Amino acid sequence: MYKISLRERVPSTTLATRNTFPYIMPDSQQESLFQQKVDAEQKIEPRDWMPDGYRKNLVRQISQHAHSEIVGMLPEGNWITRAPSLRRKTILLAKVQDEAGHGLYLYSAAETLGTGRDEMVDQLLSGAAKYSSIFNYPTLTWADIGAIGWLVDGAAIMNQVMLCRTSYGPYARAMVRICKEESFHQRQGYDILITLSKGTPEQKAMAQDALDRWWWPSLMMFGPSDKDSPHSAQSLKWKIKRQSNDELRQIFIDRTVSQAEFLGLKIPDPKLKWNEATQHYDWGEIDWTEFNEVIRGNGPCNAERMAARRKAHADGAWVREAALAYAGKKSKRNAA
Ligand code: FAQ
What we know:
The chain has about 325 residues and is an all-alpha fold. Helices cover about 65% and strands about 5% of the residues. It contains 13 helices and four strands. A hairpin with a 4-residue loop joins β3 and β4. The two termini are about 45 Å apart.
């Protein structure tokens, strides 16, 4: 198949074909120019030529990322009415609203690749598309809200800072904005845990219990280990991903251990130990059976999360209809 690329510079060897412009470049040549551009750290923009696989992979990753932000509102949203003070309530409300905003930036970025938002949402609601495993765990106590901010947002930032340098322009730019907000989210979670860990023995125990339950699922957020990650090699070549799942997971562990120590909490991993030779922490083994079960839909809260999203979507149908009718009226008025 041949496609025309209007934005690529036509190579000088083709100048002889000037009179027959537009020049039609074979896919193999387009692909090699595309890779050169990626290697040179130039951003790929929506109207640029891109391999079908690059487009598909991006829509897959960005839409799953968007779904994660939206489903990710549920575990914390669950605590807005139960936050222990007005201050904590307003902070949590703002944080959960930020997650909705992140979902919207991401759906918009994915739409620039030619897939409609309705289609992406249908894929989430039908179970065809994944969202992050982490949001299938329950928030049992207020300390869980601290643990989500500290560990879940902390892991999300670790992954998303690399995505600020992803090769696709609209995704990279969305990430810059998202990361700024995620840093605030991480601090607010840590602040909750500082308060609890300096509190009564019951509060400290609550913080430890939250760390015990959220530690391993947070490490799973980085995805399967590199050797079992089907998308990584190609995504790294296309610079969609800039670091591997295992690399990011290790950096996250290395940075988080001292934060746990500062809180006086113990990471639930008997094998966790500083390794002088590698200058990294050694650590235990993730329960990959649990990870695979959760992403297959069999985690503790998968059914509940999907039921909540389906209900919200159905309940919001009238809002979408009203917004469309209003937009239609407005564009008719403007055209008149
Ligand atoms: N959960 O070959 P890989 C947040 C799937 S945002 C579920 O390694 P890839 C903010 C993967 O999709 C959190 N599924 O895949 C917040 C693929 O399935 P597919 C979300 C997972 O894409 C905080 C298959 O396994 N962040 O938390 C998971 O190269 C608090 C094979 O895996 C992002 O989405 C998982 N943990 O690497 C919100 C960041 N891991 O599509 C509210 C962007 C893997 O073939 C409250 N995404 N899978 O059916 C990425 O960086 C990548 O997509 C990875 C996975 C690193 C997640």
